[in-house]
Records
---
Amino acid sequence: MSTARSRPLFATTLAVVVIATVGCGADGGVQTTGALGERCNKDGSCQRGLVCVNDFCLSSYGYGDPPPGDPTGGDPRPGDPRPSDPRRSDAGPGDPITPPADAISGLTCLDAGVPRARKVPSPGDLVITEVYPDPVGADTSSYREWIEIYVARGPVDLNDLKIMITTTGSPTTKQLASADCLSAATGAYVVVGGQSTATDGVGAGLPINNFTLPNSSTVQRAALALQAGPVTIDQMSYPLPATEGTSYMLKAGIVDAALNDDPQSWCLAGVPNPPFSGIGSPGLANDVCAPACREAATWRAVRTPAAGGLVVTEIYPDPNPPTTDGNREWVELYVATGPVDLNGLSIVVVTSSTSTDTISAADCIAAAPGTYAVVAGQGAATDNVAAAAVITGFALPNSWTGHTAAPLSINLGSTVVDAVSYPLPTTAAVPPSTSSLVGRSYQLAPDQQDAAANDVASAWCAAPGVAGTAPAFVGIGTPGAVNPACP
């Protein structure tokens, strides 16, 4: 799918705060935010629908006023230095810090300033569709995490909706609170996240103060649940540790509160959606699972090769002149089964250390069956090598003290697609010829193009011929074409 998609707007962008936690400033006072139940802004203002009463933001329709017979608005917390302050720690009527228990707020919200009955969601009305637990870089206290909620049946009001987050022990509870109606229509994708999601280009329709999600734990999964009062509206879990910079999403087309219980219904997101700086689709219908690539203007799943689907047929480890290799090394792959995409493949070489070079490209690098695809460093074009995939900084070792070969494999994640080795040092003659691999490729015999046959050293040889005999290539070898017979 194309990334040029419009983002549906949520019905309100009113900032909301965590109910259970009150942040404090350096002076020990409550942070100035102008939100419900918190201190008024310095100019005496509050968010829309709230009024400043005794330095605290309360609802304009009397939310937090003491009910008849309760002049204090609820019992004060033991040791509370403000016994006459309407802000209380209990769940009694009139207590602005626990609005779900308030006889007024539990039934109504402000719709354009006018109180009306709240439309409380029922089980299945809301579906968790995407989770972003691990923003790129240091995310401790950065509050850039978010979740996406799809409204399957609406309209509903999200006022007082609880987000229950559990790894070990008791769940952490975050809660939406606002005097205004947090109304969401059927088909809306609502983003609930920390106050700093805009740093990553995410406009959280419902920001929660200090909202975070676990990205690692001693357990393998973190559980999320949405609750309205005591009723669970939806629940799911996501794997730990989380993948940095990539959301965990419900597969495209699945927006069901029962189906999202199954881990098989989920995957890592594969498509970037600017201005979001990560991989995912906050506020949009979910797209293609990872791995994904772009073909023309459309994203699709990468066609990954199976083990043996690609065969290493030629290696060029030591460009000539040898004084400067200049990232001109390359590896040729024969496509035994296809079509496949080269996106995400890694070339892994082991000597005294292990080097891993991965093909990272947004556009699909397609390879048809029966063709030869060259993966090369950025300098290979200097030698007139037409590479299917270019890896910046790619190089191959040409010596290893005390060893006569370098293992090389083509990997896709944990899957080894093919594995071979080539002789070292490259300055030594490759039997049965007297030629070295300086400026010459190490090639597989054309009748041995098989992921098992190429494991045997006798199936390989130094490329025959002299420099300049192959079309365009200035070295000795046949990058991108069938190999000649070995001598």
---
Amino acid sequence: MGKKIRVNGNRVKQAIMFLMFVLLVPALVFSTDYYVDAGGGSPHFTTLALAYAACAANGDTIHINKNITENLTIAKNINITSDVAGTVWDGAADSNPTLLANDNNTAWNVTVTNLTINHSYSDGGYTVSVTGNSGANFTFINCTVKRTSTSTTNNAVFYWANNANNNGTLTLKQCLVTGNSSGYGFNMQAANRSNMGVLENSIITGFTGSSYAAIFDNNTNDANNIKITNCSIVGNYIGYKHGSTCAGGTGEVIKNTVFAGNTDDISGYCSSATGQVQYCAFESESTGFGTGCQYSINAANEFVSDGSDWHISSSSTQLRNKGTTGTSIDYEGVTRPQEGVTDIGAYEYSVGIKISKSADVSYAYIGDTIVFCLSVTNTSSNDITTDVWDTIPAATNFIECDNGCTVSSNIVNWSLTIGAGQYATVCFSVKVTSYPFFIRRDEFFARFDVKDLETSGKYYLYPAYDRKYRMVQIEPPPKKSF
């Protein structure tokens, strides 16, 4: 007789459910990181071509961590970035684009961040090009994209020349686009498009040739198809130029954008779309556009340094607080708005200073020397002159201080001028004379001598020490004002 076999019903059910899960749920897709550096085997490669060949089409990421000279033709969903500040990706020694998509009817998604991308070869070549029917969506964030080649062959930083089947979009956020007298910043020639380009918090400058423009919107069927928000189009021959055909322009919105330092801010703009240009500022235009626009601006008054530093000046009356709701941050990542109303341009005006205090030891004995340092960072859009001072701690004797300090009534004082986005460090030293001694971290004062700002602040920390008189680390409380 055959043996009876007992089957565990629960286990059978579990096995069936697992099999159904495997059959019905598609395989999970994971992205992989590859690196262009000194090499040594996957995922590390010596060239971009090798790293790209290793990528699947599911959104893998290539980290370009050394300067390279190569072209790349895109036919995959891919992310390209750098972990090394200042990394430059230059085009190869030919007239082909540094970065190209021309795969017909395929909507590849490409995101590029934290890189400088150039095309410098003397025979010319676009820096970024999308051609044919390609539906590629290119996004650039925190990049410098430029063309230093002076050739007039394939002479644009961005060249978008697709026919009506193209559904791709070019997006730039917090980018600097620069060129020279030999070409365009953007040469956009796609047909029948109403959302081809999205530019936010970016600066387009240096396209100074008399035949060229920072942005050339040359769409044959709908002359307006680029959306621009909070950008600075500055220091060009023509800031924005429309082609000869103007067929409605229903897709375009330009707002919170400043045009300055250009020979001609806007040329041949579609008359049916002028109302879609809102809350912009023009230096060479005196009238003719939509709600909230500022005309004939005095650039010398509006910028920190007209022609070289496009941060908004504290004396600005035509950019500062003159925009409308736009982006949430500016070109440098400063939160918008700073003063209740968004500013016009890539930069948001800000006044601010950050101070941190450190000591070279965590506890001290009688006779020990302690060095205290204050690091003062100017987070504003303008140079700042400020007095910074600190109290010499109890149970210590002052020894010395640096950077032209003065000492009076137990106070160490410095007068500092700090450039926009820069920092300074000042230090003083003391000798411990008696117990108990504790280090008072973040106890200092600062007075800001800036127009429209009369504020004093005190950052402090209540003293605390244990039975061995070692400093107890306590996080500082919020800034106090008085």
